[in-house]
């Protein structure tokens, strides 16, 4: 290592301090709301209402969580959310996986049109479609039903799922399958023994992402599930929040934490794997 | 690279290595089946999209040409009124106000997201390992938080009585004690924009950072040795390399911020004056689902879809330049 002139290294270390300082500010700004949600959820209501906020977690209580878990509709909403999310993931993954095989393993007429359609379709704003979707589902007697909401969710999760899975399936060289077929396996068997295990991590990542989408969704759930006993967790939180009217921030933050923490944990695991599908524009995180 | 292989797969002749099964069924039928197989695989996806998306979209167009109000709610058949709903909204000064507001909100949030996102991406590249991990994790927190809970948490931060924002601003010297952020449109939209930008930055920052790490270090070093300052290096080396992905991100952010609904809706419920704070999405919702004017709501929604599709065309052109389908 050649010794650098002193002045240069001094100015470099000074700029390093500056860069790290900016980074610290950025860290605080982006993490603070989540931190604040978490710590508020463990605070007693007198501490929450005090004019001097405490930034470090002290004097914890579980009373806020008790008020969430004792809330009449929390567990119903929890159950509804689980059901609609599970159903969405299963249906979306099944149909998207088949479609992904079709577009990455075969060349056929209409393949490109299908891919372009997938890209266009995922841009249709849910916020616009909810108006007619309410009427459509009402006509089929599926408003306020898990199946009805699932129909909406599958259609909206699907483009992203197809796009990401297509990447994973194309990532497994076709030659591997063909080699197995030369050795006498049937096409189906070659697929199950060679391709499927290699695509499995991609399937898991994509399902988790579809799970997050359905779990977080608010707009459709708000208009389709308008009876209290049919609410999903986000809609439940909003009515809890609205009902509390700023008097029970501890409870509202405890509810937010219960909804958010599983999502953050899952997200930390999968965000890297699904990056290409994200830039294709399907979903905002 | 793989351009040769597909034809071998789609047109399998009776090959010598095919084994007994193949030669047994290797006639016209198997070939035909093989050609139909990809279409069969697409059926579930096409059905799901048809039922959950194409048909509701078609119905949206139909409803937008109907007088679909309270009477229809009780079973009266909707009357077709042609383009009257569109005539109504285009002739309504409030529509232009909401449209202008939506576009302005979109412009502000997109510019802020892209600028801060790009700076954050550059920052990620300059940091040492530990700080970079810390920043990445905290950005992931912001990214992963669901839109609804994020809005509720920010609502708590900006709470007029015990919110930490008012406490901090008062501490710094502004007289903000008990200030109500949501009752006045400008500060309402400031809070809403802050939430949208906070949630939007991580995706932009991570994607741009990933693109920047693709630039060979030698190129930047060579530029530095040739005497290029950091601004010059950014302008002449980094920017041209990340510009295509930047444009894609720009298009996506615009699409997302134009249709923002959850943040506005929740803040309105928490105390915003609805008529002064509506954007296209919340207005369409309040006209139709809440106000029972489905025809008018559908027309507003279709205007949204129209703007979105225009932007999507642009976005797709960029995508096609970026990626091999």
Features:
heterodimer, A: 285 residues, mainly alpha, 75% helix, globular, B: 325 residues, 16 helices, 77% helix, disordered N terminus
Textual characterization of the structure:
- The complex is a heterodimer of chains A (285) and B (325).
- With 285 residues, chain A is mainly α.
- Chain A contains 13 helices and no strands.
- In chain A, helix 3 (63-69) packs across helix 12 (249-270) and helix 11 packs antiparallel against helix 12 (249-270).
- Chain A starts with 5 loop residues before the first helix and ends in a 6-residue tail after the last helix.
- The mean pLDDT of chain A is 86.
- Chain B has 325 residues and is mainly alpha-helical.
- Chain B is built from 16 helices and two strands.
- Chain B has a two-stranded antiparallel ribbon.
- In chain B, helix 6 (93-126) runs parallel beside helix 10.
- At the A-B interface, helix 1, helix 4, helix 5, helix 6 and helix 7 of A face helix 1, helix 3, helix 6, helix 7 and helix 8 of B.
List the helices and strands and how they pair.
The complex is a heterodimer of chains A (285) and B (325).
Chain A: H1 6-40, H2 45-49, H3 63-69, H4 74-105, H5 111-121, H6 126-139, H7 146-170, H8 174-182, H9 187-216, H10 219-224, H11 233-244, H12 249-270, H13 275-279
Helix pairs in contact in A: 3-12, 4-7, 4-9, 5-7, 7-9, 8-9, 9-12, 11-12
Chain B: H1 5-10, H2 19-25, H3 28-64, E1 66-67, H4 70-73, E2 79-80, H5 84-90, H6 93-126, H7 129-144, H8 147-157, H9 164-172, H10 185-213, H11 217-225, H12 230-258, H13 262-269, H14 274-277, H15 280-290, H16 294-322
Antiparallel strand pairs in B: 1-2
Helix pairs in contact in B: 3-16, 5-16, 6-10, 6-12, 7-10, 8-10, 8-13, 10-12, 11-12, 12-16, 15-16
